[in-house]
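Usage example:
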Amino acid sequence: MDRRDFLKKTGMAAAAVGVGASSVAYAGSTIKWKMVTTWPKNFPGLGTGANNLAKLITEMSGGRLKVKVYGAKELVPAFEVFDAVSRGTAEIGHASAYYWKGKVPEAQFFSTMPFGMTANEMNGWIYYGGGQKLWDETYKPFGVIGRPAGNTGVQMGGWFNKEINSLADMKGLKMRIPGLGGEVLKRLGGTPVNLPGGELFTALTSGTIDATEWVGPYNDLAFGLYKAARYYYYPGFHEPGTILEALINRKAFESLPKDLQSIVENACRVVNQDMMAEYSARNPGALEQLVNKHHVQLRAYPNDVLTQLRKLSADVAADLAAQNKAAKKIYDSYMAFLDASKKYSRISDLAYLNARDAG
Amino acid sequence: MDRRDFLKKTGMAAAAVGVGASSVAYAGSTIKWKMVTTWPKNFPGLGTGANNLAKLITEMSGGRLKVKVYGAKELVPAFEVFDAVSRGTAEIGHASAYYWKGKVPEAQFFSTMPFGMTANEMNGWIYYGGGQKLWDETYKPFGVIGRPAGNTGVQMGGWFNKEINSLADMKGLKMRIPGLGGEVLKRLGGTPVNLPGGELFTALTSGTIDATEWVGPYNDLAFGLYKAARYYYYPGFHEPGTILEALINRKAFESLPKDLQSIVENACRVVNQDMMAEYSARNPGALEQLVNKHHVQLRAYPNDVLTQLRKLSADVAADLAAQNKAAKKIYDSYMAFLDASKKYSRISDLAYLNARDAG
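Running the assembly step on the lines above writes:
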């Protein structure tokens, strides 16, 4: 017998339950969800963001919807998270959309693009600029809903064993840089290598690779990358505001009552902001340690390298758009939003940061 | 009889309520909260943010906690919002902390500072950098809890009837610019004027003031300020990431069950991000209209003006810190976080935006 019938049969109308009822947490049965993730359990920032999402849903629902987190490989391997949520093995996942490029190339737009939007611009596009609608269309055939649930902010360009003084220094460079950033490096004459995070340190030390990107000061310090690479640390162009996504099985979501649906949606939004806030707070302190304690040398790409990186990034995005009609539609929306945001940034964020920094 | 007694007396254990119970919304009594705001009802961005906060709480709680929004003057005048929440006339308010500077000067740090932190940096400081603890201490004597619940991002410097080509042009300038930004203008030899938004258009047209700041393209376009000022629009320095706050009566908050407390806290976080996303989406389009349709001229302050603005902004912040011990403590925390963030921005946001913009 479900609760509705019980209330009807006992003649107990909702309104008659009595004053003070709101002061006890809801005592109905518990729905249990499994969350699969592409991160090692408790991985700082990303994995803890997934934990936070599960905790918030459980907490706001007063325990009516309990979410249990599984790290990569605990229930399914990292790169099977999408399929696991699609077929309902798990009701929810935590990942990033560019991991599914083999299956859905255009999903990459909902993660990050080289020389693309920042975290705040991505949120503007997704929540108010039509991005979410396009994302929904993209995942619909798989029975999955995607929602922003974390952002790393501007990622660092990476760790190099030598200085990059010209385009010639990029030629032949063996660098761990996945995704579209890797494609850009390839077109510059470098060799992009894809390695899991756990192998970066050894690969750098042994000289298997000359350079690697990872995330930013907070994660890079924890990984000890400053000990592996000979000290040169460069700003990034390839992941300017990477969205981490919550993947939700559509049927599981739709079977929830409206208030729990709202709680799930809004928990994703909370984590989306919270992860960005955590990185905003932890990266500056980690950078201070890297520079002052570990004597890491900060460098910037020379202008001719930046110019080529920008040009090739635009090419790579256009090639992605050419893959299919859906990709073209998303590309057009993304680029229009990016173009307007760049112009606005010139009198807003960029103008302000330059003015503040000149002092 | 309260619900707990009822369940006990009827021998109905929580676990026995039955499978499927989670699929009906909680049917207990309703708690009703009043929300007073410093904004005109439905004012774009700020007032709609307050509406959104009320809606989210109501929705996530399945109607157990219903929040009704009152615009400025509907229940109390705009600048009595803090007192109204403090004495419990309303359980919650939506405002910004710098409005209470007459009562609590140091509250201004939780709003925005000239040449201070951006929206993401403020979130880093508040959520992960000790800012929230300081804010709690600041409002504790008043029985009020403050939480971030919206951000405008970098505000524009404003509308001017003449170009600013040197420091001499700032002397004698009558400008609507409230708060610490106004104090900076005063020290430059200008005359800060405080006027409510509704009077800006007439004051500019009649020549009562020479210039005004307001918010940014989205709000400024809606106000028609481009028709009043002779076209010169400048980037801002005075409000680089203004936090809108939710003010919550502590007793009302503490009387809520834990799940509703979590819902209130997290609804504030959702609105905090959502307002920033709305401005990120609407400002670029509004700027395009201002420039292309209304032929607004974008200008930048010359370097000697910026240098003075920076210097005087630092003085004004130091003077605020000197007002009392609490202000000094918050100032020290704020400035340490800002200093580290500025250094990080040089290889992160600022480096990236400059690299992206050069193309």
